[in-house]
Amino acid sequence: MATASRLLAPAPPPAARPRCLPSNRVAVPRLRCRASAATSPAGGAALLERDGAAVALREFVTLDELRAAVRLRVRTFYEYAVESVGAEDQKTALADREFEALQDRISGKMINFQRVSCINGTVPLSSSLMEAEELCSLCKFVEDGEERVVIGSLDLNQCLWLPDEMTGMRPGVNEDSQTRAYLSNVCVAKELQNKGLGYALVDKSKKLAREWGITDLYVHVAIDNIAGQKLYKKSGFVYEGEEPAWRARFLGRPRRLLLWLDMNKEPL
């Protein structure tokens, strides 16, 4: 788990910065898992192949990376009209607020969260990202002198419940033995969706959950998010319940499904 002692100061940017080249599309083939013993910034991480480069899947290491992950989430989950007055300021304020809240959850400052980890998928910054210049700009971080881009992210939360969400019922509510966890903030950059990265991130979180001794893993998904439901079904999650319509209206959002994964049945 990324603990407070691992929160490192952002590294200074190098003198020269490669720019993403414009094009008509982002040419990214389907991601494929491969084993690696790399000792680069991806050292110890699961790797995926992408145009011959490695997509590293791992728990975050630096604050710079954590901030880049938060920016990706704001970019993914919130939409603003291009001509909206103050839209950029709103995005910046939202990212700053979530960045602080995520640090508090990871460092154990928030009640109910026993343990939290941010898991990211990152790639080196290169011209192969092509027209995804905004993604490169917003979601970039520097580690050991190398510029990388966060292209996928999620949180694994060991806790009894998530605020404003349905509560899972397994394996019970014994405060002394929290073996339940929830996935949250699952996102993949829009330019790179449907390439297998979402499935790989969830799979990485399942491995970490096993290390934590989690027996029951949960995720919430909007009832109209068909792509998300397919992803979680493919990952082994099954239906447990759904949010009442009145509660969704009160919270001003689409109804959520609660999906459950029995970690005891997951292959080692």
From TrEMBL:
Q: Which PROSITE patterns has this protein been placed in?
A: GNAT
> Where does the N-acetyltransferase domain start and stop, copy by copy?
109-264
User: Which InterPro entries does the UniProt entry name for this protein?
Assistant: Acyl_CoA_acyltransferase, GNAT_dom
State the source organism's domain of life.
Answer: Eukaryota
**Which Gene3D superfamilies does its entry note?**
3.40.630.30
**PANTHER family recorded for this chain?**
GCN5-RELATED N-ACETYLTRANSFERASE 7, CHLOROPLASTIC, OS08G0260000 PROTEIN
Name of protein: N-acetyltransferase domain-containing protein
**Source species, please?**
Urochloa decumbens
